[in-house]
Amino acid sequence: EDQVTQSPEALRLQEGESSSLNCSYTVSGLRGLFWYRQDPGKGPEFLFTLYSAGEEKEKERLKATLTKKESFLHITAPKPEDSATYLCAVQDSWGKLQFGAGTQVVVTP
Amino acid sequence: DGGITQSPKYLFRKEGQNVTLSCEQNLNHDAMYWYRQDPGQGLRLIYYSQIVNDFQKGDIAEGYSVSREKKESFPLTVTSAQKNPTAFYLCASDGIDSPLHFGNGTRLTVT
């Protein structure tokens, strides 16, 4: 059975303090790994898709990387507006999507 | 702007009543989905539809029903048979080479 585990559950950062979020997964044939950002009371907003180990994607202060067992979302020099819950999801070879529980990030000025 | 509209944003119902959540998309996506989000858990799939007049049960379909009469619309009914209906409900859609797009959710509270 596919499994997605995100860690830590919550992360509190000072503005400018870089850090990484982890998404560990087991899946029968990875079709894609997705990162989303979710603000309170809103739907998830798509950030990145990664397809194969070694792939990296960047957007502003966010960088996502992928290995055969996990993905990292690096937040470089975060700002308060980066505060959100970050969700990871994996899609298996059948097309089934499995979400992790998310990491709640709070960035304080 | 293309997107997914969910309504209402907040919904309150008494136990034993059925309630229908609306989802409309203008992204021209064929596939639509309903997810449920509870604190500390990943999104769980309730129902999905890949084409008009066809839909499939997801992982937690018991106590829910859907219809797909139009490409743009995928309403979800939470029936009185759903034992723990209070949750945040998210509608989503995707197309070929398009990642899953989400609406802004409906928060349902049943007392």
What can you see in these coordinates?
- The complex is a heterodimer of chains A (109) and B (111).
- Chain A has 109 residues and is mainly beta.
- Chain A has strands at residues 3-7, 10-14, 19-26, 30-38, 45-50, 56-59, 62-66, 70-75, 84-92, 97-99, 103-108.
- In chain A, a hairpin with a 4-residue loop joins strand 9 and strand 10.
- Chain A is globular and about 45 Å long.
- By secondary structure, chain B is an all-beta fold.
- Chain B is built from no helices and 11 strands.
- In chain B, strands 2, 4, 5, 6, 9, 10 and 11 form a 7-stranded mixed beta sheet that branches. In chain B, strands 1-3-8-7 form a 4-stranded antiparallel beta sheet, with no helix packed on it.
- In chain B, strand 9 and strand 10 (101-102) form a beta hairpin.
- Chain B is globular and about 40 Å long.
- The mean pLDDT of chain B is 95.
- Classes of the chains: A mainly beta (109), B mainly beta (111).
- The interface between A and B is medium-sized, with 19 and 18 residues.
